Amino acid sequence: MDADLVIDIGRQALMVAMLVAAPILLSALLIGLLIGMLQAATQIQEMTLSFIPKLIGMGIAILFFGQFMLQLLVDLFHQMMAYIPVVLGA
Question: Are residues 66 and 10 in contact, defined by beta-carbon separation less than 8 angstroms?
């Protein structure tokens, strides 16, 4: 096993982690931004006001993108299983 293989495996893992987390984080970011603008406009400074909308938005993101995220993770798992003989030197 050489350094290029380790770097490639790490790069793939980081890319999949980023793609899996992106829909959930982006939905929370957009909802938080909208709630923040609403709070600034109405001068309501309640910290817990954005919690439930963010939670609902993240649930909807998982509902829409869950199959895509799961497929990415399964593909990464299959690739890692294919690397086992290479890593063991067989």
Answer: no
pTM of the predicted protein model: 0.80
Residue with tokens 């909807």: 60
| Residue 47 in tokens | 């910290």
Span between the terminal Cα atoms of the chain, in Å: 11
What digits encode the pLDDT tens for the residues 68-79?
999 999 999 999
Closest C-alpha to 35, from 60, 14, 55, 61? 55
> Which residues of the chain are modeled with pLDDT < 50?
none
Q: What's the pLDDT score for residue 74?
A: 97
- The token pair at 9 is 């495996």
Q: What per-residue confidence (pLDDT) applies to 5? A: 86
DSSP state of 89: T
Give me the phi and psi of 66, to 5 degrees please: -60, -45
Length of the chain: 90
Please give the structure tokens belonging to residue 18.
């980023």
